[in-house]
Specification:
This protein has about 220 residues and is α/β, with parallel strands linked by helices. About 55% of the residues lie in helices and about 10% in strands.
């Protein structure tokens, strides 16, 4: 009989330039200090095939890419990611920390590209079944500030080259998701300094771990 307690699935989402990489490192450190056996991964990507798909999705290309092509590639990478990495880890009691997940699809392909959200939902159900994140930390930031930060980092990928209207729609889609999923979403004001953002993230994690009577 398998007595392993299922691990917890935490995702981190954010608009461009919101400091996701910095906060992912902070969350990883926090969870390891809390003695959680942890798998850290990302989307699109996370597996050899997923990383190949990531390269296709992020590389700027002259002819662009049809919205449905982009959507199906995202879910193809996700299906592989779930099958090969995320679900086996959770079933073996490991916690999974993922840089973006399906909320990003609702935001970028649903909000930014304007694709039918019912189509995204159908693919979500097909690929994921009942599997959803246990906690989503969303780093929110005004678009103009985020894009300025992103452009200061250097060369932009295919998504980062989109216009302000695209990213305004992305942000609004994320905020819509936060209103639809209040039990799992924690909205973080990413416009503060790093310490201010970390304080909010730590509070969200403290509250989450209290469910397990296990506070670091």
């Amino acid at each position: 009989m398998n007595n392993i307690t299922r691990g917890q699935f935490i995702t981190v989402e954010g608009v461009e330039g919101a400091g996701k990489s910095t906060q992912l490192a902070f969350i990883e450190s926090y969870l390891r200090q809390a003695e959680k056996s942890l798998v850290v991964t990302r989307e699109p990507g996370g597996t050899p095939l997923g990383e190949e798909i990531r390269e296709i999705l992020l590389s700027p290309r002259e002819g662009g890419m049809a919205g449905n092509t982009e959507l199906l590639l995202m879910f193809a990478a996700r299906a592989e990611h779930l099958s090969q990495k995320i679900l086996p880890a959770l079933e073996n009691g490991l916690w999974v920390l993922c840089d973006r997940f399906t909320d990003a699809t609702y935001a970028y392909q649903g909000g930014g590209r304007g694709l039918d959200k019912s189509l995204i939902l159908d693919l979500e159900n097909l690929v994921q079944g009942d599997h959803r994140p246990d906690l989503t930390i969303y780093l929110d930031l005004p678009v103009e500030i985020g894009l300025k930060r992103a452009r200061e980092r250097g060369e932009l990928d295919r998504f980062e080259r989109e216009n302000i209207a695209f990213f305004e729609s992305v942000r609004e889609a994320y905020l819509d998701r936060s209103r639809q999923l209040p039990d799992t979403y924690r909205v973080i004001d990413a416009g503060l300094d790093i310490q201010g953002v970390e304080q909010q993230v730590k509070q969200a994690l403290d509250d989450f771990l209290l469910q397990f009577n296990d506070r670091p």
